[in-house]
Queue: 2 jobs
Job 1
Amino acid sequence: MNVAVLTRRDMAAAPINRLLKWLAVADVFVMLEYVPFSIYKYLVLPEKLDFPYSWAIYLLFHMHFAQILHTASICLTLSLAIWRYIAIKYSDRSHILCTERRCSIAILTSFILPPILCIPTFMVFDIHTKNITAVNGRPGYIAYHVDSDSQGRLYQVNFWVHAVLIKLLPCSILTVISVWLIRALYSANQHQKNLRNYSACPAAEKMVKRQHKADKRTDRTTKMLLAVLLLFLVTELPQGILGLMSGLLGWCFFKRCYDLFGEIMDFLALLNGAINFILYCSMSRQFRQTFRQLLLQRHFARFLPPNPSHSESHNQNTCTEKIKR
């Protein structure tokens, strides 16, 4: 629904909505890819108790695909925060700094950078085999599973890159920007109070009302983005801390602790993508209006007669002219 609304002509005009659109696209692909993974892991696998090679290949693809798109989502969220910071901090030059071209560069970079950052993960994780002995009359078989190499410098480099560059560094930047945005909102509220006091003068009342309307629209956008950033921090910061500790404490901590909380962190990341739609609806009037129009168009389209084609309407007009003659 986010993608459907944000691609409408009214919404797609603003560069910040383009960033939100591609953030929604990345989240949608991650969630869609999790559907077959969850069906097989939680419904099929417990019944079969089998670990075929095809499942191991898919698991490896799932891990890399989800990480690349999730990293792209992180880059887009970071771009979103920086974009809003520039738009408010340098409002007099925002039309020069926040251009369509720079928005396109930010989106393109957000999708090119993740595969490069994930190269250590591609090299560390691989398909391993394990011989399962016969139990209770069931014949033995070879189980294929995805695991990391527990030794070597590359293993540590992978966790440092994942924890510091992909998780903790963006979280630190977002924390600083979020604090600044909160302060900017507080200053805006104080400014609005001063304007209300100033509006006691009748001559300035119209100008003050216009300014007050613009400020309220800016504040709503800032509050919405602030909620997106804070939700992102809640879901990503624990992963960064656990990843950093896995790099420091080694393979044993990774297997005992990181793997233990892996499913919870995956669920939080998926929940983050789903909650964004509720945030947009609750905090953006334009988003709600566009969403309402989209629903009404789809609901009432089946009751409306089809629009005649150009040739049909031309023939209709010709027939009408002949009858008149």
Job 2
Amino acid sequence: MSVQENHQLSGDFDKVRDDIMAILKMKDYDDGSIGPVLVRLAWHSSGTYCKETDTGGSNGAGMRYESEGGDPANAGLQHARTFLEPIKEKHPWITYADLWTLAGCVAIKAMGGPDVPWKAGRSDFADESLNPPRGRLPDGAQAADHLRHIFYRMGFNDQEIVALSGAHNLGRCHTDRSGFDGAWVVQPTRFSNQYYKLLMKLDWQKKKLSNESAEKGASWQWVAQAPGADEDEPPLMMLPTDHSLIEDDSFRPWVEKYAEDRDAFFKDFSAVFAKLVELGVYRGEDGIARFSHLEKGKYDSAPKKSDSPGAKGSGDGLAEPAAKENEKGIPQARAKL
């Protein structure tokens, strides 16, 4: 059996929320908070969805297995999962899939962001046989066409792409994870619309990155000094995908709107993040998310994958649509956050 039947709709979720709130401040972690990395965990555990094959998404918590957890795009997320493990041990009735997505929503609100609607009932995979292939997460070194390829596959439109990119108000990049380095905004633990304001306002310049970064596929990034910052302070950064939002004729008007209207951004971000964490979740009449009816993605008969996720070959266990997707040569992506 590939799905553990440990899903739960009832339980003291308020206590889980309180316990998540209690661990957010951590002085020895990035900027004194683990909130941003919890948002990234929720994002990456959901952003593997493919609407054409009905595979991937927030159900399953497949990142517990090497085929997904070891994806270069998920580098650093082992820290987020470790931070949440004591809460899972304290509340064993909650699934990992529910805990990871709930933690991201709680963190957004705690850092000054909007309430994000969230529903319980996700199930966990009992093994990795249902994990999606690698290469489905965004690659920050790419441009607008790549963003559309990734996000259209999940069912998002241009406005939603720009709104969801606002998650870059939080956190920072790390050379040893994605190859990129630095924070997007001055206060990376405070949810705001500064990301859009800075994209529009600052004089962004290309900066060549180190050989270590280049080996991870990050050869350059955009940098600019924060307003009022001393010259010796580290600059702010933007990924090539971030800057593409103001280069693209369809994306740019939404950047301008969110830079000018914080309330509109909060409203749209709440809606799109709620949509994100529901990707791949198919609920029965009881509200519980199940997998057994997902015939389109051939989950019912998918055998165990090979030791090289996404590899093409006999007996690799990929559902047919997923195997065809891999044949397109989608690169193994790096972490976007």
